UniProtKB/TrEMBL annotation:
Pfam families, sorted: EAL, GGDEF
SMART domains: EAL (SM00052), GGDEF (SM00267)
Domain EAL as annotated: residue spans: 466-717
Biased composition range(s): Low complexity: 69-83
Name of the protein described by the UniProt record: Diguanylate cyclase (GGDEF)-like protein
TM ranges: none
Coiled-coil boundaries: none
Region annotated Disordered, chain positions: 69-90
Residue intervals of the GGDEF domain: 325-457
Organism whose genome encodes this protein: Motilibacter rhizosphaerae
Annotated InterPro entries: Biofilm_reg_signaling, EAL_dom, EAL_sf, GGDEF_dom, Nucleotide_cyclase, PAS-like_dom_sf, Rev_trsase/Diguanyl_cyclase
Length: 724
């Protein structure tokens, strides 16, 4: 009970005052209004004492709002203005003071008497209780508002975090953050969905308590991936402050397909740890690798190109100085490839090259390098061989890999190759070794193509001679050092000169070189076709000159494989027109091997020549692979029996049988048979006996320039009778 009421107080006022305090205390613990507080005071006083009471309270934040409570309806109270004197007009009032400011008034009006000092003390006590309520309510409100602010801040932070997470998940870049201890804090959805996060990696993270660098090192050890191990060290260096930033390209194949990422590690600005981003660069990396592959490999065949071959050869020669083994370079050149390419087009030639590469690749060792050196030339680098003999065995496998015909674009043809082999000597360099293999290749061509030649000292001398010939041959064409010699083709047995074969000669100073001494060089220089056209022109010019003299003998020219597939019929037609000749003035001789390289194209060309009236003969018959079916379709004017059979026709029964068979074959087809290489009377007599139609050779007449007159007939009986 409050003793401040003094002697005038009574039990009712004391009880009222205590109840006001209790009820106000209960009230502020909820969410009361000022009106609620005023009503508590009024109702409690009225109920305990029977006196009337009114309360005016002002809102602290908005003073224009006030709460008023009085004794009830029908009992209006004149509430004094705050700050007025208490006791005026039969009332006792007291201000409600809080922190020195008046927050309202409490006014008492006794029901049956004038207010006294006890009423005034009672009013002041009520005002104090009300002020205490206001203080507690204000404190409670501030606490409540603080909680709401914190709650709102937490909700705001949560919303911000949610929005940040949405932004990170929407980013295509792969992102991860680690705390100061190197454990994973945050991973965005792109990283979790990418191949950069594998099941194995997740298992390792769980094993290493989310410590990312440790899990990466374990993964690198399991997969032998050095890029991942280096990245783990780099991100730890950034996390520990050793370096400010780390970047690296990583690769892995968690799904069986190789992927590449460019990773960047930077430190957190606050709180330690690092931020890691992964940008997938697989397409860019693949493009870079493809570009690098194109720079070092042939686009058509996929083989290493000359640059890569030279690099590997340099490394192989360097190893040769440390390890005792045999290193070989094999130069491979496709015989008469240009003919097929020019005749049927580059698409045909490309497909042929691919098939040849497939066959060659099937017989080389996995550790060897087969490279396309250029055009129809290839080089095989054989490292770590046991001996020179093993190199020869490898070359033989390559040679025989092309034995069987190939079928390209619906055509069947044989594609042989010539091979030159060079063995690396101590201190050899790449250019020298390649030059030696090329020199050996030249020997293989000179010896008839479709064979292997080994480089030796003889090859070295031949290489020097060949280089000299190459330089001189250019000058020979320009300075007209070339000429034709002519050898008669004599009818058997009457001895009439039916025609002449034109043979190319090169007058080089005091020497006269035959075609076998320089045609391979011309072939390697790409001069075969220009030489062939020169021969056509010179032969037609001489035929026109002889016809002007009354000699209507047919002039035969030898045609190369290159010319056969490069418009021979067109070139010949132009030259005939130039000298006003008809086709009967000229004949062409084409070797059996050349014709059978591409029989279909050969048949087409020979038919065109026949339509022009040009005579065609199959040269060196019996040494190639022609079939009777193709021979029927070729329909040549004649067959020339190769000198290898004629050489022994008079003393070797097998040669005699072969020559006799060819003569019978020609007679059966209704075409002429001509034997070449007649050097002995016995050979001539045997050929006459066998019924051969014509002959040619040193016995009858050696080749001679046009100004050296050739008789119209030759006395064969006298020549055949000179038997020793």
């Amino acid at each position: 009970m409050d003793e401040s009421l003094g002697p005038v107080g009574d039990v009712a006022r004391a009880v009222a005052l205590d109840r006001v305090g209790e009820r106000l205390a209960e009230l502020w613990r909820g969410e009361p209004t000022l009106q609620d507080a005023a009503r508590v005071v009024v109702d409690t006083v009225a109920g305990a004492t029977g006196d009337s009471c009114s309360v005016l309270l002002l809102n602290e934040e908005r003073p224009e709002l006030e709460a008023v409570a009085d004794a009830g309806p029908g009992d209006p109270l004149a509430a004094p203005v705050p700050g007025g004197r208490s006791g005026d007009g039969g009332t006792a009032s007291a201000p409600v003071l809080l922190s020195g400011l008046c927050r309202g008034t409490v006014t008492l009006r006794p029901s049956s008497r004038l207010p006294d000092e006890g009423d005034r003390r009672f009013a002041r006590a009520l005002a104090d209780r009300t002020a205490l309520f206001l203080a507690n309510a204000s404190l409670h409100e501030r606490r409540r508002r603080g909680i709401e602010v914190e709650r709102d801040a937490a909700v705001g932070n949560l919303e911000s975090a949610r929005r940040v997470a949405e932004v990170l998940d929407a980013m295509p870049i792969l992102l991860m953050t680690l705390d100061a201890d190197g454990r994973i804090e945050l991973v965005n959805s792109a990283l979790m969905a990418s191949p950069a996060t594998s099941r194995r990696q997740l298992e390792l993270l769980e094993r290493f308590d989310q410590h990312y660098a440790d899990a990466l090192r374990a993964l690198a050890q399991m997969t032998s991936n050095s890029t991942i191990a280096s990245f783990a060290d780099g991100l730890d260096d950034v996390r520990l402050g050793r370096i400010p930033r780390y970047e690296a390209d990583l690769h892995a194949a968690p799904d069986g397909v190789e992927h590449w990422w460019h990773a960047i590690v930077v430190p957190h600005r606050t709180g330690g740890g690092v931020i890691i981003t992964h940008d997938e660069i697989t397409e860019r990396r693949q493009a870079e690798l493809a570009a690098a592959h194109r720079a070092t490999h042939d686009a058509l065949t996929g083989l290493p190109n000359r640059a890569l071959l030279t690099d590997r050869l340099d490394h192989a020669l360097a190893r040769l100085e440390r390890y005792r083994s045999t290193l070989a370079v094999i130069f491979i050149d496709l015989d008469h490839f240009k003919l097929a390419n020019d005749t049927h087009g580059h698409g045909f030639g490309d497909e042929l090259l691919v098939q040849v590469v497939t066959r060659l690749s099937a017989v080389v060792r996995p550790e060897d390098t087969l490279a396309r050196f250029g055009g129809d030339e290839f080089v095989l680098l054989c490292d770590g061989l046991d001996s020179r003999e093993q190199a020869e065995q490898v070359a033989d496998r390559l040679l025989h890999a092309l034995d069987e015909p190939v079928r390209v674009g619906g055509r069947t043809l044989r594609q042989s190759a010539s091979l030159g082999v060079a063995i690396a000597a101590a201190g050899a360099d790449a250019s020298t070794l390649l030059a030696e293999a090329d020199a050996a290749l030249f020997l293989a061509k000179e010896r008839g193509r479709a064979r292997v030649a080994m480089f030796d000292e003889g090859s070295r001398r031949e290489s020097v001679r060949r280089l000299d010939l190459m330089q001189a041959l250019h000058r020979a064409i320009e300075e007209e050092e070339l000429e034709l010699h002519f050898q008669p083709i004599v009818s058997l047995p009457d001895g009439e000169v039916a025609g002449v074969e034109s043979l190319l000669r090169w007058r080089r100073g005091n020497l006269v070189l035959g075609p076998h001494e320089f045609l391979d060089v011309a072939d390697s220089l790409g001069l075969t076709l220009p030489l062939g056209r020169w021969v056509l022109g010179a032969a037609c010019r001489q035929a026109a000159a002889w016809r002007a003299e009354g000699l209507r003998r047919r002039v035969y020219v030898n045609v190369s494989a290159d010319h056969l597939g490069a418009g021979l019929e067109r070139d010949l037609g132009l030259v005939l027109d130039r000298y006003a000749l008809d086709g009967s003035a000229i004949g062409v001789e084409i070797t059996e091997t050349t014709l059978m390289h591409d029989p279909v194209a050969s048949i087409r060309c020979l038919h065109l020549l026949r339509d022009m009236g040009v005579s065609t003969e199959v040269d060196d018959f019996g040494t190639g692979y022609s079939s009777l079916a193709y021979l029927k379709d070729l329909a040549p004017y004649g067959l020339k029996i190769d000198r290898t059979f004629v050489a022994g026709v008079h003393r070797d029964d097998r040669d005699r049988q072969i020559v006799g068979a060819v003569i019978s074959l020609a007679r059966g087809l209704g075409i002429r048979s001509t034997a070449e290489g007649i050097e002995l009377p016995e050979q001539l007599a045997t050929l006459i006996e066998l019924g051969c139609d014509a002959a040619q050779g040193f016995l009858l007449r050696r080749p001679a320039p046009a100004h050296d007159p050739c008789p119209r007939t030759i006395d064969l009986r006298a020549l055949a009778g000179q038997r020793g």
